[in-house]
Design a protein that fits this description.
- The protein has 61 residues and is of the alpha+beta class.
- 39% of the residues lie in helices and 16% in strands.
- A two-stranded parallel sheet has the order 1-2.
- Strand 1, helix 2 (32-40) and strand 2 (44-48) form a beta-alpha-beta unit.
- The radius of gyration is 12 Å and the shape is globular.
- 2% of the residues are buried.
- The model has no long low-confidence stretch (mean pLDDT 75).
Length: 61
């Protein structure tokens, strides 16, 4: 997970370092707008915070 201020180059850095990686947009509450984004850009998956834990079982303790 990489965090930082808006427009600091986080996505650009990650896409450069990991060109074949899957990207997840973590949102606190799913919304229709986030689902539309996922439909328009298949390389980005919008998941809720609890949904992220399902994708990262090692973090569940």
């Amino acid at each position: 997970m990489l965090t930082g201020p808006r427009r600091a180059g986080k996505t650009t850095l990650l896409r450069h370092l990991f060109p074949r990686a899957e990207y997840y947009l973590v949102v606190y509450q799913p919304s229709p707008e986030m689902q539309n984004l996922s439909a328009l850009c298949p390389s980005v998956r919008a998941v809720s915070v609890s949904g992220l834990l399902e994708h990262l079982p090692a973090l569940q303790a």
